[in-house]
Amino acid sequence: MMNEWLVDNQAGQLSFTGLVDPTDKTVVTPQATVDYGYAWFSLSNGPAVLHTPQYDRFFSVSVFDMLHNVPAVIVNPSKPIVLMRPGQKAPAGDFDHVILETDQGLVLTRMVVVNNLDEVTALGQKMRLDGGDGDMHRDVQRFSPAIEKSGLALIEASIPHLDAGRAFGKKSGDVGEITSASAVMLGQLGTPSDTVRYLPIMVDEGGEPLSGTKTYELRVPAGIVQDSGYFSVTAYGAEDRFLIPNDKKVYDQTTYSAEPNADGTYTVTLSPDGSGKNGIPTGKPFYAILRAYVPVPDADMTVSVTTR
Questions:
Q1: CA nearest neighbour of 40 among 87, 67, 4, 72
Q2: Which terminal residue of the chain, N or C, has fewer Cβ atoms less than 10 Å from its own Cβ?
Q3: What is the pLDDT of residues 128-171, one digit of tens each?
């Protein structure tokens, strides 16, 4: 992923996706109504400093190392962010500090779009990363085809048992290697549960995989996010984990787009043509992911699934 990005970008340079659609294959399981910013970087030459604008809706900065640890997720940052390795001297000033276990890493920004893409695009142009243009070379472990096949089978078999609330760690040892690999297979660039909680919705009420020929109603519980956060439900093709093409160009429902029920819950309908309350078109085998950004601690994320 890093090497592909570096074909068209420089280390330490921010690039933005705009609104993601089914043609975007940068990562699996993207969210549709978010403008993502990416900057792969290297701290081999010293610390780097990320400068960000202010935004009055959800905006987060996630920092990943090359072990898929997430040492920091800063929501609506109010000060510049220093990225550094242990032993490096931080610049003087008022900063948030993030220490990485590897020289190379990724800054991923998420800025929710609510019918204001022009505003979000303009804010993205105000972000900059000073530094981070060190050595980007990193050796990658290779395996024989037989070992790779066996390893992938083990990872895939563990996915149904994955605790999505404990899938991503801030430092090495926070989660097991199989847990981490399973979480990445299900969705790259995830976030620890104190900032985002995930609930994969893979089967119906009878335990059968979700079908693109049937209609399902999901009931999303009330009170799962704090005032500064929001929820989203996004559908993905089961065979490729990307957004599902449809004529309506609707790929998710969120706090900002969905109409709530009188009791504060939300009904989200997954149907072949996208009909139904807060509908999302499917039309092929699929699964969905509920995300709760800035979640209420210990809130019940249980989603009921009813086949219509």
A1: 4
A2: C
A3: 999 999 999 888 888 999 999 999 999 999 888 877 667 788 89
- Domains, the chain, in order of start with CATH, read 2-130 (2.60.40.1610), 145-186 (no CATH), 196-307 (2.60.120.1600)
Pairing of strands 266-271, 279-281: parallel
CA–CA separation, 261 and 263 (whole Å): 5
User: Residue 41: enclosing H or E segment and its boundaries?
Assistant: strand 34-42
Chain center to CA of 211 = 24
The burial of 159, by beta-carbon neighbours within 10 Å (0-12 exposed, 13-18 middle, 19 or more buried), is given as middle
In this structure, the strands spanning 96-99 and 81-84 are parallel
Interacting residues of 292 by C-beta distance below 8 A, sequence separation 6+: 196, 197, 198, 199, 224, 225, 229, 231, 299, 301
CA–CA dist 31, 289 (Å, integer): 10
Identify any residues that bridge with 190 across adjacent strands, giving them in sequence order.
Answer: none
Residue 182 has pLDDT above 90, yes or no: no
pTM of the shown model: 0.82
